[in-house]
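This part of the workshop introduces the protein records we will be handling. An example says more than a description, so a record of this kind follows:
>
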Amino acid sequence: NYLLGVGRADCTGPVAEIPLMGYANPDQVGGGLLMHLYSRAFIVADLDDNKRVVFVSADIGMVSQRLRLEVLKKLKSKYGELYRQDNVILSGTHTHSGPGGYFQYTLFWITSKGLIRPSLNAIVNGIVKSIDIAHQNMKRGKLFINRGTVENSQINRSPFSYLENPASERSRYSSDTDKEMVILKMVDENGEELGLVSWFAVHPVSMNNTNHLVNSDNMGYASYLFEQEKNKGMLPGEGSFVAAFASSNLGDVSPNTKGPFCANTGESCNNPQSTCPIGGATMCMAMGPGNDMFDSTRIIGQNIYLKARDLYEKASQEVTGSLSSAHQWVNMSDVTVELNVTHKVKTCKPALGHSFAAGTIDGPGAFNFTQGSVEGDPFWDEIRDQLLGEPSNETKDCHKPKPILFSTGEMTRPHPWHPDIVDVQIAAIGSLAIIAVPGEFTTMSGRRLREAVKREFDSHGISRMNIVIAGLCNVYTHYITTYEEYQVQRYEAASTIYGPHTLSAYIQLYRGLARAIATNTVQDLPRGPEPPVFNIGNTTLVPPLTADRVMANKTFGDVLQEVRQQYHVREVAEVTFVGANPRNSAENATEHNFLTVERYASTSDSWHVVQNDASWDTRFYWTKGLLGRSNVTIEWHIPHATEPGIYRIRYFGHYKKKLSNNHAVSVPFEGTSSSFEVTAL
């Protein structure tokens, strides 16, 4: 038995004009909303309440160091020493459709236009609030664990790298991806259901880099389905049951199961360079199982949800035992690894290789860089030398065979480009050990890490530990490939920033944490060097918020394009309003709702909300016009099961108005469509 608490809070942030974080495509800025982003928190405490573990999974691209440090600071001011860097794990789901701009290291400023305070604040506040809710609702309960195989939901997107791993190692596994899902089920002592955490390795990139609607992708859709099922009759984001679908060792794992094809000719580009005969690497894109990216997100998310539901209903193995957590800060650019008694190697200062710029089959880069480059390109190297400076010989040698594109560890203006100080962390809840990793481990890297940690526990007499990797935790350090995968320098290897021995270094470090937990010597672990906090204001290229305007004889919320009078189920009801910048609303309220779909009840002569802007079936598009004007288009993709009747769509916004004293205020407004009839097929 434990004390358990679960909580969920909104962390969506501004849905317009902010670059989305994930594909590093500067054209991919927010322009509306498909689903809200949430932080989901789970607290486990022992019954005499002297030890706690907090696991948070947030619908964001990754947890940044800045984000983690700000969350810990807020927790400290609220709770003192209760929630600390050793017992709080913050993990990102790795959606590529959430707002960016919450990083302090310079590299991430380039595509997310700097440090964007409203974006960072929304995530910090959402995470803290989700922990607050869990903290306030602690009750006695039980944990159950289960595991099973998820089919038809992933492919390895760098199979040629995977094949570099030793045949003897590969022969122990049936697949080049980890198909296993591990779930943790939480119930209170009366058997009332509290929540679920699932760990499964797949990239949430069913939504591709042409998408402009903020959303949580396939993993978020799985959470949505699970929570909608358990919180019956509630709107999305409401209800007490919390279901988190957390990331794992997803480094080389794509949900785009049809594999890579040339966008122009339709032929396969499943080759070591992922390039097309015409158009090169920029044309090589992987396709999901659906007929468009929304459909693929739905299919993959539903597969994951159905497996989790099955495992949840059948979960009978109880998790019992004591709680512990171990954490260290490590300078990852200077770790000496003892491979064996005679052989020592070192990690490197961070650097990105040429193939980093190639992107992947889930989102190709610009400029036709190709994956698998072990040679540099004199043209780009020369530009790099002129703009950013040439990498030192020491760094070049350390990273071989990686040809260095950006020697980020040697770039310090205006602030360092990449972290040196990295978190390593393990939390143990009885027989479950959660390894919190600061990036994206590939399939085989994750297998080696789990196995090494399990062996470490075994060697100290703690057998039958369930080892799970939680991805994208605490600080973002890109990818971690195996030494063998590193040699062929596809995207994941080029993005293994601390060099060829990165994985060996992490294995050594995590074994040390596991040993400390197993031998009850956590208090003797050195804390390590504390990470820096750079003094950065709101440094951003995001346009400032200006006054919103309307065209003559129109007012905010007026309908520009009306709905039809009648729709069948499965059709799309669409209405366009005179709009205002959605960023005004985000800065007024963390949980602003932009729209409702309402059904008329004749018995009470009133309207009832049936969908909101967090519903999968609604889409909110914002289109910026000239001179402060803008439009909002709302779509309702009418689900098959919709009850026939009379409906309407409403829009809620804020417009910014300049006052005479040069202050600006946000003024709320709303718009309503005509009513329309929905009929069965």
Q: What stands out?
A: Residues 558-679 form a domain with the Immunoglobulin-like fold (CATH 2.60.40.2300). The chain is about 20% helix and 30% strand. The radius of gyration is 25 Å.
